[in-house]
Amino acid sequence: MSCKKLLVYLLILLATFTFKLHAVGENLHHQHALPSNLADHNIVESDFSKALKKGKRILQAENWNVWGASPIVGDDGKIHVFYSRWRGTHSRWLSHSEIAHAVADKPEGPYTVLGTVLTGRGGNKWDADTIHNPTIQKVGDKYALFFIGNNLKDASKYDGHHASTQRIGLALSDSLYGPFIRVGEDPILEISKDKKQWDSYLTTNPALLLHPNGEYWLYYKAWDRYNDQMRKMGVAIANHIEGPYIKHEKNPLVSFSHLKRQVEDAYVFIHHNKFYMVMRDMGVIHPHVGLILESDDGINWSEPMLGYRTSVEYINEEKVERMERPQILFQNGKPTHLFLALMGGKYNTSSAFIVEIDQSKF
Prior knowledge:
This is Glycoside hydrolase family protein. By secondary structure, the protein is mainly beta.
């Protein structure tokens, strides 16, 4: 082969390689993007999703990971946020997470961090190691702070997996400024003893609904690890905030195991006399968005709709990051802001994230 032909061949080879590399890059980009023609893909975008405006990161702190921010308006008129935080790599949430408290004059901040609210108790306690995923609500004249905890040393009693000891706990306080005192020595919601049950492995990610009938409805996630390996949602109901919480006979209420898909991080609320469940999608529509379901009774839920889009729709960042643990700030009885946990950020860790809800659209 002459030098000229060899040069032409190499140029063609280089062009082919460049084209293929570009195509791979495009595919990697588009696999994180929602299709522009949602209807053609049988995706229904909810009014809630359409009502979401631009957002911003909050509670970014160097050397801290921040997760699962739960907002509430205090009697002092300030916005109080209870959230998970820990130092080091993101995986250390399993062993080093604690719940912290911050306040601001408005949802967008700036926030003043007041300090730690709850930490792992150590020793042989069920919540010895990590305290995570808080959700706060006012109940009568008290504040109820639900959370999850674990004891990693006890994992050997199950299958050895780090998640096997995750359970839901509850702490109460007369004031948002604390102290928050744990209710009893045991989890507020235990696993089912029968391994054939969907929630026989763990109970996590609590979401409390104050039902109009006066009951306390505690929605939660379980990982059906002993059966189909899918994560599903159910509810347990109590007449008193301290329990006992009785699991509903129709559990799990929300499952996409027939699609071999999962969901987690449900937050349930009532708006205009309708129940809504907004949660993180794990592939039903798209692994980087949220779902929202509707219900007339809080038990029987609609088909999933798009609850929120990917992160880049709400913030001027190029990389699509995971948005999890949705919770909603209510002001004067109206849902005004969606709070989320968002990977990435200024310190390439994770932060809380808020998106305003357009009241005229939802």
